[in-house]
Amino acid sequence: MKVLQTADRESAIGLIQCGRDTIDRCDQLVENLAYSDYKPCTVTNMVLAVRFYGRIAGHTLNLLSSVVMPLHKLDYYDEKDIAKAEKKLQR
Fold it and tell me: Which residues contact 90 (CB under 8 A, 6 or more apart)?
């Protein structure tokens, strides 16, 4: 991933937002599948796939946070710090 190689904060913040949106969409899809008319085996397969993609997005967000967050804060992730960084970039 080029963002990690170049430590491009602006791109990382954009990808973090995209990753958050992806995780939200995965959660919504799982909820929608719970009330769908699909066969139970189809719902099970789809939920497992969606949860898998959501986990991949979560792990990718962890990698991207290493570009945005200072080294001493990598173990502690605060959404407020990302929001502050996003506001600074928008100025």
Answer: none
- CA–CA–CA angle 75, 47, 23 (5° rounding): 35
CA distance 46 to 40: 10
Q: What is the pTM of this model?
A: 0.70
Q: How far apart are CA 86 and CA 33, in angstroms?
A: 33
Structure-block tokens of residue 8: 């491009």
Q: How many domains does the chain have?
A: 1
Query: Each residue's pLDDT tens digit in the chain (91 positions)?
Result: 788 888 888 899 999 999 999 999 999 999 999 999 999 999 999 999 999 999 999 999 988 988 887 666 665 556 677 677 667 767 6
The domain of 73 spans 2-90
Amino acid identity of residue 29, one-letter, is L
